[in-house]
């Protein structure tokens, strides 16, 4: 029987017990009748007392059962409230080597695309994001990633490399779209893989690997995996970094051979491998904090605004933006983790617009900052000792802003609150 059914049952028992008590009192207080002066009043009054005692016993038992039901419901509600308050908290797992993380995440992303009926999945590039700038990995690393994807793809033959993919403005200026040389006339249900490794500075051995996929036409995320990774040094092979003077180019001693580069799938739209001066370091490394990788993300949404936004009759597609955060390295890290937990633990529709604009802008000018209906804007909150940010939802059309809550990072050895989190899978 359901909890509601149990409550109704005991309420009916209490009503009957109350009726029996009233009847028992009537009998226990009965006086001799003139119509029957020889009636045994002692027996009648005794029966009334017995009725009262029996009904009170039933009443006590029913009341005790109801209290137990209400207490259980109260505990459950409290537990549900606590769980809801921790719904978007995540605990980052121990970093694993990049190659291992790539293989595991790629398999999950491809499976998510297949489950969503994407039969054409495009792989263009592996990007390194350092201090807000996206740089294409070397041809050798791109080849290695492509080989692993083809191995996982097997006989489905769903993964392919788009030739000369670029972001272009649609006819009439109504938005932006991807264009590539071998594009089919009807490429509406095509996914583009989103692969980036976020590092605090070039040469870092550790970073956040984001592996996902977006709908090629709408830019909406259809798959997303985020994992801390070690052993990312090989990704720097073949990259060029600009010296502090901006003139001297320092090239890796392990640049891939011309033959290997020639074997790489072509992609003229990928950014040049020259790394901007401002992207060669991050304020993270200068902040006194010894860890780039947080141990957990704590998200507060006290009014359950995220669920309410996701339940709108015509839901928005949100692009996570952190441009208001002064340190681009920190901005990239918190945006990646917030997007990850929202993708996994909410029903919000999310856009990969930030990735598209940073990685594929090419020679386009006057690009908008947002490619989606709405923004989830992250801003610095200053809630020390946590690295804390407040975030809100903004409609691009009306510019209406709804405050949601905060997103804060905890780091190893710096936990300031007892939390319960969900480990990233």
Can I get a quick summary?
This protein is of the alpha/beta class.
Overview of the structural elements:
The chain is α/β, with parallel strands linked by helices. It folds into 2 domains: 3-85; 90-423, no CATH class. It contains 8 helices and 21 strands. The chain has helices spanning 3-28, 41-85, 98-115, 139-153, 258-263, 305-310, 328-345, 353-360, and strands at residues 90-91, 96-97, 120-122, 127-130, 133-136, 159-160, 166-169, 176-179, 190-199, 207-215, 221-230, 240-242, 249-251, 274-275, 296-300, 317-321, 349-351, 374-380, 387-395, 401-410, 422-423. Strands 17-16-18-19-20-15-1-21 form an 8-stranded mixed beta sheet. Strand 12 and strand 13 form a beta hairpin. Helix 3 (98-115) crosses helix 4. The longest helix has 45 residues, at 41-85. It is elongated. The protein starts with a helix and ends with a strand.
């Amino acid at each position: 029987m359901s909890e509601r059914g149990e409550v109704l049952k005991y309420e009916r028992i209490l009503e009957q017990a109350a009726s029996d008590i009233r009847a028992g009192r009537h009998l226990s207080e009965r006086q001799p009748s003139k119509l029957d002066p020889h009636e045994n009043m002692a027996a009648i009054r005794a029966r009334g007392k017995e009725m009262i005692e029996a009904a009170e016993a039933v009443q006590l038992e029913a009341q005790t059962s109801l209290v137990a039901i209400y207490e259980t419901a109260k505990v459950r509600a409290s537990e549900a409230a606590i769980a809801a308050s921790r719904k978007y908290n995540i605990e980052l797992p121990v970093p694993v080597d990049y190659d291992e993380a790539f293989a595991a995440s790629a398999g999950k992303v491809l499976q998510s695309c297949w489950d969503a009926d994407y039969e054409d999945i495009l792989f263009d590039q592996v990007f390194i994001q350092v201090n807000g700038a996206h740089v294409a990995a070397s041809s050798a690393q791109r080849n290695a990633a492509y080989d692993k994807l083809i191995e996982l793809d097997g006989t489905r033959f769903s993964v392919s490399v788009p030739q000369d993919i670029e972001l272009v403005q649609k006819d009439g200026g109504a938005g932006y779209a991807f264009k590539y040389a071998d594009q089919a006339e009807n490429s509406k249900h095509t996914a583009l893989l989103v692969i980036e490794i976020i590092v605090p500075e070039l040469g870092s051995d550790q970073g956040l690997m984001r592996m996902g996929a977006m709908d090629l036409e709408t830019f909406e995320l259809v798959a997303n995996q985020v994992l801390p990774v070690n052993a990312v040094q090989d990704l720097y092979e073949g990259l060029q970094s600009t010296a502090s003077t901006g003139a001297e180019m320092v090239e890796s001693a392990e640049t891939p051979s011309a033959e290997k580069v020639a074997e790489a799938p072509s992609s003229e739209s990928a950014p040049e491998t020259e790394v901007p001066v401002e992207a060669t370091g991050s304020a993270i490394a200068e902040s006194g904090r010894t860890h780039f990788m947080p141990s957990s993300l704590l998200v507060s949404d006290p009014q359950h605004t995220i669920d309410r936004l996701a339940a709108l009759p015509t839901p928005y597609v949100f692009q996570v933006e952190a441009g208001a955060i002064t340190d681009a390295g920190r901005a990239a890290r918190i945006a990646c983790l917030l997007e990850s937990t929202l993708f996994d633990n909410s029903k919000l529709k999310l856009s990969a617009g930030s990735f598209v604009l940073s990685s594929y802008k090419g020679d386009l000018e006057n690009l908008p900052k947002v490619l989606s209906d709405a923004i989830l804007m992250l801003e610095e909150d200053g809630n020390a000792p946590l690295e804390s940010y407040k975030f809100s939802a903004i409609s691009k059309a009306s510019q209406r802003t709804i405050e949601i809550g905060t997103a804060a990072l905890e780091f190893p050895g710096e936990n300031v609150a007892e939390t319960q989190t969900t480990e990233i899978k």
